[in-house]
Amino acid sequence: MLGSTTISCALFFFLFIIFKIHHRRKCCKYPIFRDYPFLGMLPTILWNLWNIHDFITKELKKRHRGTAEFLGPWFTNMNYLITSDPINVHHMMSKCFDNYVKGSEFRDIFEAFGDGIFVADSETWKYNRSLFHSVFKQRGFELFQEKIIQNKVERSLIPLLDHVQEQESVVDLQDVFNRFTFDNICSVILGCDPNCLSIEFPDVACEKAFDQIEECIFYRHATPKTFWMFQKLLQVGQEKKMTKAYKEFDQFIYANIESKREELKRAGRDTITSALTWLFYLIATHPLVEAKILEEIKENFGAIDIGKKLGVNEVKKLVYLHGAICEAVRLYPPIPFERKQAIKDDILPSGHLVNSGTIILFSLYSMGRFEETWGKDCLDFKPERWISERGGIVYEPSYKFFSFNAGPRTCLGKDLSFIQIKMVAVAILSNYSIQVVNGHIPIPNLSIVLLMKNGLKVRIRKREN
Ligand code: HEM
């Protein structure tokens, strides 16, 4: 009797597995990886996690219109449609904007960002957006930023770099930029400068805590929700780190202001740090580009002495430098992937079916590296790409150059970012030459902001003006 029950159960189990495998194959017309029984496509992701952005790019390039489906382990909701097709981006970010939202699962994953503009949808988002818009688009805000950055460059950045070059020591430029942008954002939001950028390189617990939060959010994308919720309940693994970091970060914020501003910190600090770090890496490894940037600075402003500070209006004239920044954020987008969820069923221009509730992942990293979009030299660092025959800046539609998002949710800090990056780049490049330490290989980190895992180790030398 027991024997026949066991056999029936085993048969039922076997048939269930066959049915499930068959059903998943039928539903998933454009798989990105091999779909293993029970574990789905997760093993391939975990195996290649160390190199995830390049790996996904390579796989997407082989798929129809750079779009494919990812199925997570059985009985989880971890199913994504991944795309890097600009026409799909235009469809979801602009044409059918109302059908693609951040959604409640996004808010769960990004809970550390509270209910701010980055996670909000519909009316809450509209309200937040108009609030931020009214601040960022004021001329006074631009000038306020200009003053803060000029002060920071003159009083902290230049003295620190002078000190480093006198000592002939190696410095982590990414750490320098992190401290610079952290001081800057605290000055803007909190009205006080924590002075993290100083020759003592003080330990800043709050800053590290924020990096930790971003790393944990990245892992939540690569883990089934039930799994990370369970980890959170038991307070183990990444989730334990997340809670600790969150407490530390909150202590700092509450000690300084009453309302939380995590979202602005992500916008204003990490993205700029990322853009500056990759930009300097690319410039340091492309001497011809460096020479052209210096030439442009010289042509516009003559020889620049250490104390000379360029303002908003001056840096706007630097077209070649603008092209170099566009190239840096095209090849290394500070936010390497984005996520949306469909409200209703839809069909994408690429022909892929979207069911209500489908989660879409946009690989911004892959989008900057597609030959169909950027041509055969898509992997080259080529600021000339952004300069028109008449010497102006080439305009590329945001659904193609997606690093600052597209449609109604386009980044509100885009113009401000170019100004900040240019001011810092001119101050450094006109005073110092940068050499990446021999053998230092920049490895992208695993986080929601694309930084270098081991920083950017460089030596600096004073320029003979
Ligand atoms: C190189 C620098 C930057 C890059 C590449 C960048 C990129 C982006 C991207 C991709 C988004 C969409 C994020 C998402 O929806 O998940 C975004 C949104 C946003 N960014 Fe930036 N950002 C940069 C700098 C800044 C700065 C300096 C600020 C302001 C101080 C800022 C303010 C915002 C705001 C407020 C949003 C939300 C817009 C909305 O949802 O309506 N960003 N940014």
Automatic annotation (TrEMBL):
Domain of life: Eukaryota
InterPro entries the UniProt entry points to: Cyt_P450, Cyt_P450_CS, Cyt_P450_E_grp-I, Cyt_P450_sf
Statement: the UniProt record of this protein carries the keyword Heme: yes
Entries under Gene3D superfamilies matching the protein: Cytochrome P450
Annotated binding of heme, by residue: 411
Annotated keywords: Heme, Iron, Metal-binding, Monooxygenase, Oxidoreductase
Cofactor requirement: heme
The keyword Hydrolase is annotated on this UniProt entry: no
GO MF terms held by the record: heme binding; iron ion binding; monooxygenase activity; oxidoreductase activity, acting on paired donors, with incorporation or reduction of molecular oxygen
Pfam family, any one: p450
GO terms of biological process kind: lipid metabolic process
Family from the record: Belongs to the cytochrome P450 family.
PANTHER family: CYTOCHROME P450
Protein name: Cytochrome P450
Organism annotation: Vicia faba (Broad bean)
